[in-house]
Amino acid sequence: MGQTPIKMAVVGAGYFGSFHCQKMADLQGVELTAIVDIDESRATQAATRFNARPLTSHRDLIGQVDAAIVAVPTSRHYTVAAELLGGGLNLLVEKPLATSVAHADELCQLAAKQDLCLQVGHLERFNPIYIEATKRINQPKTIQMERCGPFPGRGGDVGVVLELMSHDLDILLQMTTAAVKSVSASGESIFSKYLDQARAEIEFEDGLLASLKTSRAASEATRKFVVEDRDGLLEVDLGCHKLARTFSDNRSVKKDDLVLGASDTLLDQDRAFVDVLCNGHKPLVSGEAGKAAISLAMRILECIHNGGAD
After folding, report:
1. Which pTM was predicted?
2. Phi-psi domain of 156 (left: phi exceeds 0; alpha: psi -120 through 50; beta: other)
3. Starting from the edge strand earliest in sequence, which strands make up the sheet with 67-70, in order?
């Protein structure tokens, strides 16, 4: 795309979409051309703030912009993304990519057919403490993951497995290339008609054992995981940006701690999307990666529906 500014749009001007608008408005090489929301007043308010064109239909973007961020409710990801990919737009779609493996696969095929970028918004991949953790993990044996927080009072068109656990499923799938051997899971609805908390045990063919706990009904926010590997234990706090490595052998135990300052992972993610468009390389979190997380999420949901095990 050369030196010409990338014409960018944000579809969905709600809670998360408004943050994307801010990031894109601040990035060099980007022209935030339009902001779309089915609520005309919200679209107008956001567009006025960021000097963009307000629209109420994403279809009006086709032929007008180069790329878009899809930040609509999860249940609309597939419909909006499919129409925009069909219209030739490069996309960053908030996670989860879709609500079914079939729909996620269709989006991946649409992007590949037209040689378009399809990036998925798994933010933790841009978290500096997660990046540091990946450099230290050495042949993981077990991993315990916990992602909990209070009920947000927004969103709520899907359950907690797709909304929150999908973050950890994406992280988990970066730690092994082995196939899933077995899954057991349970979950409950508390504040909504969907699952508000869930637990899963996953065994991979290479022997990796994973235990996941996710809740949007907790009193405090927690985002962390603990890995047991051939070097000992690695404790990673994604929210507090710190990790602790405990080394052990037959003679001694040593600890190695690291604390990083707060970072703007959303800005890093959105900047990476722009960099893909400018330089033509593959996105860090591809549509295929987003589909893989959905596939495992669907297997967990099927286990819960069937009473606990597959």
Report:
1. 0.93
2. left
3. 53-55, 30-36, 6-11, 67-70, 90-94, 118-121
CATH superfamily to which 125-265+296-305 belongs: Dihydrodipicolinate Reductase; domain 2 (3.30.360.10)
Which fold, 6-122+266-285?
Rossmann fold (3.40.50)
| Per-residue confidence (pLDDT) for residue 308, from 0 to 100 | 73
User: Above pLDDT 90, what percent of the chain?
Assistant: 86
Q: What phi and psi values does residue 171 have, to the nearest 5 degrees?
A: -60, -45
Measure the CA angle with vertex 307, ends 226 and 218; round to 5°.
Answer: 45
With tokens 């991949």, the residue in question is 125
**152 vs 21, 216, 220, CA distance in Å?**
21, 7, 12
The pLDDT tens digits for 139-178 are: 999 999 999 999 877 556 899 999 999 999 999 999 999 9
Chain segment 242-268, per-residue pLDDT in tens: 999 988 766 556 677 888 988 999 999
* Structure-token pair, residue 159: 């359950």
Nearest to 79 by CA among 103, 56, 95: 103
C-alpha angle 201-170-268 in degrees, rounded to nearest 5: 150
Q: For residue 62, give the H/E element and its range.
A: none
Cα–Cα distance between 180 and 203 in angstroms, integer? 6
